[in-house]
Design goal:
- This protein is an alpha/beta fold.
- The protein folds into 2 domains: 56 residues; 210 residues, P-loop containing nucleotide triphosphate hydrolases (Rossmann fold, 3-Layer(aba) Sandwich), CATH 3.40.50.300.
- The chain contains 9 helices and 11 strands.
- Strands 5-6-4-7-10-11 form a 6-stranded parallel sheet, sandwiched between helices.
- Helix 5 packs across helix 6.
- The longest helix has 25 residues.
- The radius of gyration is 20 Å and the shape is globular.
């Protein structure tokens, strides 16, 4: 049984324990993406031990990570970022990875959250890493690769979030992205669950993300805008995407509704000019 919910703080409520124990009794193993470890729930742990069931906690770090070194790495990286949490960063990364693979581009989805890890089968739950090592973990997540290979990295949090800006910044620095896709919910006016915090505008978001990312990759660029238009009529969504494309001179798409080829085209063309220079820089850094 998969615990497919992520409440603020990631705790498992006591009221769930009878259902978890019943699932174990019914012959199921448990998979959780919450911060509370399943084995910390004594009735659940005892039932699992008695029945020979397995408890999988995917939102917990296994092993240790180094402090980030900031060294430029070979290969290319795209990071999805957002104006808020829970608006499509993971799905955008997955959809772009599939679109790139369909075009014959070498690409790997890199999961940084519990659901992404469940989908990919591997990754690093970046919000469970000790703060000093978040950027180092991001470096480990996307190591040196072939010059024409793309790591498509699932973003977390948002720079504008009062609780989750820190994990977002560490991931941004450690990823050293060559390209950013900014994800946005056009109908959302305030941060999800934080009504006193308004969403930033897209121009402000793009500017702040570029400024932060340039610390570890001065050549980073925004290559697209991903909208969550799930609560919009198709005609209204298309009209808005067309208007934003014209305003920002960037591909604007909904990964559930749109053709992603224009975004892939922009990604490849926008980063081609810096690829050779970066490859030379990596070689020099290696001595």
């Amino acid at each position: 049984m998969l615990l497919g919910i992520a409440p603020i703080g990631g705790a498992i409520p006591d009221s769930w324990i009878p259902s978890l124990a019943a699932a174990l009794e019914a012959g199921l193993d448990l998979v959780s993406g919450l911060h509370t470890r399943l084995a910390e729930l004594i009735p659940v742990r005892r039932a699992a031990e008695r029945l020979g069931r397995t408890l999988h906690d995917v939102r917990h770090v296994r092993g240790t990570f180094p402090v980030a070194n900031g060294r430029r790495r070979s290969g290319k990286r795209l990071l999805t970022v957002g104006t808020d949490c829970a608006l499509g960063k993971k799905y955008t990364a997955l959809a772009l990875t599939n679109a790139m693979l369909a075009r014959g581009v070498k690409a790997t989805f890199r999961a940084t959250g519990q659901t992404g890890i469940m989908i990919a089968g591997e990754g690093i739950p970046i919000d469970s890493v000790v703060a000093d090592f978040v950027a180092g973990a991001a470096e480990c997540l996307s190591p040196d690769a072939a010059p024409d290979h793309w790591d498509v990295i699932e973003g977390q949090g948002a720079l504008f979030h009062p609780a989750y800006a820190g994990v977002c910044l560490g991931l941004l620095h450690g990823s050293q992205p060559d390209a950013l896709v900014v994800c946005h919910d056009p109908l959302r006016e305030t941060l999800n669950g934080y009504p006193d915090y308004p969403l930033p505008s897209l121009p402000v978001a793009m500017s702040r993300y570029l400024e932060a990312a340039q610390l570890t990759n001065p050549d980073v660029c925004v290559v697209g805008i991903s909208l969550n238009t799930s609560h919009m009529r198709p005609d209204a969504a298309q009209s808005l995407m067309s208007a934003l494309e014209a305003e920002h001179s960037l591909p604007c798409f909904d990964p559930l509704r749109s053709d992603l080829n224009p975004a892939v085209d922009r990604l490849l063309s926008a980063t081609a000019a810096t690829s050779a220079a970066r490859a030379r820089e990596v070689e020099v850094s290696r001595g």
